[in-house]
Specification:
The protein has 197 residues and is an alpha+beta fold. Strands 1-2-3-6-5 form a five-stranded mixed beta barrel. A three-stranded antiparallel sheet has the order 4-7-8, with no helix packed on it.
Length: 197
């Protein structure tokens, strides 16, 4: 189930990369189910649709439970180790009303990397993130995560954040809102996120 529904970028599952696929699967499943009920009714198997519904429900639960367990474990663990070396990162793209801010920075491996800000900037501060404006960021220590997300350093604690996005670090699409305020929700002393050491 995880391979079917979870992922982002080039590692995304077939169903995520092709937005028509989920619709086709759902409509095909519904059509097949309706055809089975019509067939059972025509053949006079009155109790059969009830057992079909029960069987489909049990199979759905059995397939869904492992996915929920995996997602629960994946999102409760610590984030990868953070390299607290400030890196200068110019903005390359500010799109979706500030929801997607892409920056470029030189990683610990000496290579240039592109990554999104993990901090979702509050509306009144978004106009500061124009293309070519430079910001100080922290990146993950592991180069395997160099192109996922970066975090604004404490130098920019005056910038208000309205949410967070760590898409692709632990699972695809991991994000959420926070009460708008200054400073990074990841780097505050009262942060609920932990980084491995």
């Amino acid at each position: 189930m995880h391979r079917l529904f979870v992922g982002s970028g080039p590692d995304a599952s077939f169903l995520i990369r092709h937005d028509w696929a989920i619709l086709v699967v759902v409509l095909s499943g519904c059509g097949g189910f309706v055809a089975l009920i019509v067939l059972a009714t025509i053949q006079g198997w009155a109790p059969t649709p009830m057992w079909i519904v029960i069987a489909i429900g049990l199979v759905s639960v059995l397939l869904t439970i492992p996915t929920f367990v995996y997602l629960h474990r994946a999102t409760r663990g610590p984030l990868p180790a953070l390299d607290r070396t400030p890196r200068t990162a110019p903005v390359v793209l500010n799109a979706d009303g500030g929801q997607t801010i892409l920056v470029e920075y030189r990683g610990a491996d000496g290579e240039m990397h592109s990554a999104q800000l993990a901090d979702i900037i509050e509306g009144s501060h978004q106009d500061r993130f124009t293309p070519n404006s430079c910001w100080q960021v922290y990146a993950f220590r592991d180069v395997a995560h160099a192109d996922t997300v970066v975090f604004l350093t404490q130098t920019h604690d005056d910038v208000w954040r309205a949410g967070w996005k760590i898409d692709g670090v632990r699972i695809g699409g991991e994000s959420g809102p926070i009460k708008p305020g200054p400073g990074s929700p990841f780097l505050r002393e009262d942060s609920t996120w932990e980084f491995t050491s």
